[in-house]
Every structure is written in C-alpha cells, then in structure tokens.
Amino acid sequence: xxxxxxxxxxxVRWLQYCEAxxxxxxxxxxxxxxxxxxxxxCTALMWHFNHANSKSTLFAKQLMYSVEELxxxxxxxxxxVWHFDDKVGQKYLLEALQAPLVPSYVFYTKKEALxxxxxxxxxxxFKLRGGAGSQNVQLVHAKSEAxxxxxxxxxxxxxxxxxxxxxxxxxxxxxxxxxxxTDVCKGFIRIxxxxxxxxxxxxxxxxxxxxDFIDNNxxxxxxxxxxxxxxxxxxxxxENDFRASGSGITFYKKELFDEGSVKIAFDLTxxxxxxxxxxxxxxxxxxxLILEISYGFAITIYDACEGYWDTDLNWHEGKFIPQNWIVxxxxx
Length: 332
Known about the structure:
alpha+beta, Rossmann fold, Dna Ligase, domain 1, D-amino Acid Aminotransferase, Chain A, domain 1, 3 domains, seven-stranded antiparallel beta sheet, four-stranded parallel beta sheet, 15 strands, about 20% strand
C-alpha cells in the first residue's frame, strides 16, 4: 500500500498510474498532526513538496527522514532531498564526492568575504542558497558590485522574493508568448506584496555565496536520473542574459546531449544514493561542470522528451511518463 499526499504536482500522475495499474494506494495529508498514524499499513509515502511552499519547508525533510526510520520507503528519501534548494549544502556534497562542480565559494564573515573579493577576478555569479528557475541569481561584473552584496549579506540581508525581477521575467515571458497578460498583472501586484514563503523564511543573511562565471555558454543542459533511467533537456539562455533555468526555450533532440555528462549524472546519483536527481550542466572547453542539483522538476515540460538512456547508456526511443518510474521505485 502506497501512501500519497495529494496536491497539484507529481501526485496527479502518481494517482493516475496507480489507478491504471491497479496499484494499492491511500491518500494521506502530510500536514495533519497524525500523519504517522495515517501511515499504518502502508509500505511507502510519496510527497512531491515544493521549495517555495512556506508550510512544507518547515518540516518536510524531517518528516521523510522520520518515515524512513519507521521502515517505510519514502519519496523523496532523505539522501535524495536533504540538499534540496540548498546550494551551499550542494557545494559541500559535490566537493566531497569530487564531482565536476563549477568552482564555488562561501563565506560566513564579512572580513573573509571582502578579502576574497579584493583578490579575485570578475565577473562572478552571486546566488542565494535557495531558489529555482534562476531566482536569486545575478551576474556580478566588478568588485564594487561584489562589495555592495557583501555589505548587504552581512547587514540587512536579502529577501527570498525579488518582486521587481519576478515582474520583469513575467513580462519577458509574455512578450515571447510563454505566459499570459493576467500573469504579468499578478507579477506587478507582487512588486508591492511579497509572498507568504518570503515572510516565513525571513531574510537571507550571515553568509555569501559565489560561483565562477563560465562564459561562452548559450544554454545549460539538464539531465534527470530516476533509478536506472535518465533523460535530458537543453535550455537556452534568455535574451541579453546569462541564465537558462526557467527561460522556457527548450530542446530535446538526442544529438544535443553529451553521453559523458549522462554517465556523470548516473554515477553521482548512485554515489549519493538518491532516487531522483536533476543535474544542471554547463561546459568549459568542452568539459562538463555542474551548477546545481535538485530532486524535483517541472511536470509537463519533459513530456516532449524523445527517449531516455539506461545505465549502460543504451538509448530507448519513445515517449514516457517519468513520474510513473518513481512509483515503480516504491514497489521494488
């Protein structure tokens, strides 16, 4: 019996698959106080929680770890998810595994940060530890910009939600036909009223995180591994920008992807002992470098993929539903 937390995410497809394949399931509510009692008689719990949900971020990772301590399978498992939406945590993890990470730098005192700024080269990429779709990411062109960011990081701090940047991104997507005028209007209102998540999370402060800027990349490559299968998407950067995640400009042809990067994704997923990981790659002199990782991904955008690789890098042509593979993992 699989327990599934129902919401507008992976669970929609999980439930459809369970119904079609006659897989026993039970709908549960992870927000209820008695969630542990709800799991009686279940062999697995599946919950696709969002990084920007103000409630789930309070306890979701802790719950999944606790569920595993009961001897119940969990998706995401703790090893799959503990580093989710935490770029600083990912830095330490990937460095420990000697993965090809884009050189990354984190500082916890203003003095150390300024010492580094005064002795490094630019441009650099500034990131907050949380955020997806290129949120909370900016290119720092010069030392003076970096000093301002350091002063802010060890002063007032950064809001988890940048209303003005969000509005500009919605406007860009409207102009390219990706979103609606209504969505632009909502973004304009959000300039003046922050999100509930930003209110709960508070301001990011007390640290600062940079990565090297890897130039001559007009895209990034996202490779997603689920169990023993992997698929990929090429994401082009925005016009007059360097960021690809969330751009909405995507391609899926097999010929676009380097199988060496696919192998790296498989190997690291196995080392991390994760069920599902998405890897974002850029390239320097032809060599793949990882920007960040995530356990979750958008639902429908990958429906356009034309096939997938197995762990031997054999290509399997044809459409698939990756969320179904996650259910299969819970049954093994």
